[in-house]
């Protein structure tokens, strides 16, 4: 398997049921990604769409409620492994935002993983 699949392997093998959050919007977004994927004929684009589909289900986001204020890209929620801060990051331009203030934050730490249900509850991002 190529290296880039390792992240998904780790994530799928280590995730606990109580960490998972999949909203109806996320399922609808994944369905939208799936439809684009099956119509794709270019292998490279197909792989990109497949990654996006996986991301749509594995990482909390609000596909129909919010988008990046800079480029309109999709925002996904992560937790910093060092200070446990929840941040949301744009998949397209790479800008990070404070999830509550909606302000761009300087974030250089790459040690982040998808935010869990408990973390999102604790920060008041979901209820
Ligand atoms: Zn963006």
Provide structural commentary.
- The chain has 4 helices and 5 strands, in the order αααβββββα.
- It is α+β, with helices and mostly antiparallel strands and 127 residues long.
- The protein has one domain.
- A 5-stranded antiparallel beta sheet has the order 4-3-2-1-5, with no helix packed on it.
- A hairpin with a 6-residue loop joins β3 (96-97) and β4 (104-105).
- It binds zinc ion (ZN).
- Zinc ion binds at residues 68, 70-71, 73, 90, 92-93, 95.
Q: What are the main properties of this structure?
A:
alpha+beta; five-stranded antiparallel beta sheet; 4 helices; 5 strands; binds zinc ion
Secondary-structure blueprint:
Layout: H1 6-14, H2 24-39, H3 43-58, E1 75-80, E2 86-90, E3 96-97, E4 104-105, E5 112-114, H4 117-122
Antiparallel strand pairs: 1-2, 1-5, 2-3, 3-4
The site of zinc ion (ZN) has 8 residues, from loops.
Ligands and ions found:
zinc ion
Q: Spans with pLDDT under 50 lasting ≥5 residues?
A: none
Order of helices and strands: HHHEEEEEH
Give the domain tally: 1
For the biggest β-sheet, the strand order reads: 4-3-2-1-5
Oligomer: single chain
- For the secondary structure, the number of strands is 5
The level of helicity is 25-40%
Shape: globular
- SS summary, helix count: 4
How does the major sheet shape up? 5 strands, antiparallel
Mean pLDDT: 89
Name the structural class: alpha+beta
Percentage of residues in DSSP E strands: 5-15%
> If you compute it from the alpha carbons, what radius of gyration comes out, rounded to the nearest whole angstrom?
15 Å
> Span between N and C termini?
38 Å
